[in-house]
Amino acid sequence: MKAGLICYRLALGLIIVLTIATASCSSSSNSNSTKSPILSSIIITPNPPTTLWANDPDVTLQFTATGTYSDGSTRDITSQVTWSSSDSAIATISLSGAASTVSTTGLGVAKITATMSGIKSLSVELWVGIHPTPSYPAAS
């Protein structure tokens, strides 16, 4: 009977040692794993509102997108976001964030936004107008 009790205690001790060893291994493997920071917000610049002149069709305005992540870091994500214009009859925006006017008749305000991983920036207003042409007095 003593042999049975001794075997029982040894088996119980072995189970306890294995449980502690397993818990120790799993907690150390969890502490060594690193999680990638998660995108939490997007800010686009230039901001405040900007004006493009419809009668100056070769001029573009470059927007940039900066992502803020869960660990507090920031990164330039201009080439990774999806850019959009609220009114493509007024202004369009390329995959690289370059905005341009559509025509001399497309005047008004287009709101530019950037989206990535389900996170959307606040919009920036892009004003499109006619560049004033200076008037000079007639020669006498």
Description:
There is one protein chain. With about 140 residues, the chain is α+β, with helices and mostly antiparallel strands. The protein contains 1 helix and 11 strands. The chain has one helix spanning about 1-30, and strands at about 40-45, 50-55, 60, 65-70, 75, 80-85, 90-95, 100, 110-115, 120, 125-130.
State the helix count. Answer: 1
Give the SSE order as H and E letters.
HEEEEEEEEEEE
- CATH architecture call of the largest domain: Sandwich
Mean residue pLDDT: 80
CATH superfamily of the largest domain: Immunoglobulins
**Largest sheet data:** 5 strands, mixed
Number of domains: 2
In what range is the share of β-strand residues?
35-45%
CATH C-level label of the largest domain = Mainly Beta
Q: Classify the fold: give the CATH topology of the largest domain.
A: Immunoglobulin-like
Which shape, going by the Cα principal axes?
A: elongated
Ranges where pLDDT stays below 50 over 5 or more residues in a row are 10-29
What percent of the residues sit in helical stretches (DSSP H or I)?
10-25%
User: What is the rounded Rg?
Assistant: 31 Å
